[in-house]
Amino acid sequence: MIEVSKEGGLWIVTINRPDKANSVTRAMLEQLADIAETAQGAQALILTGAGKVFSAGADLDEARAGLATDPVWERLSGAIAALPCLTIAALNGTLAGGAFGMALACDLRLGVPDAKFFYPVMKLGFLPQPSDPARMVALVGPSRARLVLMGGAKLTAIEALSFGLIDRIIPKETLIDDARALATDALSATPAHVAAIKAMCV
């Protein structure tokens, strides 16, 4: 359910469970974290989903069994954030719940026009993953982070762009091509050069 395509220094990682809105199980999260932890040779990594939704968050059955608060979410977002390469979340559709963490940990976020963005932890009675609020605040500011995390706001792609949650709205049919284009300069540079510039952008 997790697919990895390698094109030289470019890794494309796809969540492929469209029949379940790309909801993720613990095994899928562990696989994603393993990939992120072993992608040290990549110069750019694109994270995307199959179908109409990027990810609806935790698989419902496993969420009820404790996945919603499992530390594997934090392991995954931490591994993505620690990568020295350029990381791009190519959000092919709605981003919801715990899946926010992996997107927030990326360097860039692209969204399609009909995507929605919501993180209903207040309503569901869970705390967000530990690093997610700080990363969201860094992008959108504290008030808008509270709007999402405490007010339960469901953002449109246009709102997410205006807030700074995503960086561009891209037609779905060109989403991966546009993500590849943004990775072009990183792919033509040395890994050390990519890592050095990334380290300066904090």
Indicate the topology.
Blueprint: E1 2-7, E2 10-15, H1 26-37, E3 44-49, E4 53-55, H2 60-64, H3 72-82, E5 86-91, E6 94-96, H4 100-104, E7 108-111, E8 116-118, H5 121-124, H6 132-140, H7 142-149, E9 155-156, H8 157-163, E10 168-169, H9 175-188, H10 191-200
Helix pairs in contact: 1-3, 6-7
Give your account of this protein's structure.
The chain has 10 helices and 10 strands. The chain is of the alpha/beta class. The chain has one domain: 2-enoyl-CoA Hydratase, Chain A, domain 1, CATH 3.90.226.10. The strands form 2 sheets. Strands 1-2-3-5-7-10 form a 6-stranded mixed β-sheet, sandwiched between helices. α1 packs parallel to α3 and α6 crosses α7. The longest helix is centred in the C-terminal third of the chain and has 14 residues. The radius of gyration is 16 Å and the shape is globular. The model has no long low-confidence stretch (mean pLDDT 96).
Which consecutive residue ranges, at least 5 long each, have pLDDT under 50?
none
Q: Spell out the helices and strands N to C.
A: EEHEEHHEEHEEHHHEHEHH
Gap between N and C termini: 33 Å
Major sheet: 6 strands, mixed
Radius of gyration: 16 Å
| Protein structure class | alpha/beta
The CATH architecture comes to Alpha-Beta Complex
Helix content: 40-55%
CATH superfamily descriptor:
2-enoyl-CoA Hydratase, Chain A, domain 1
Question: CATH class, please?
Answer: Alpha Beta
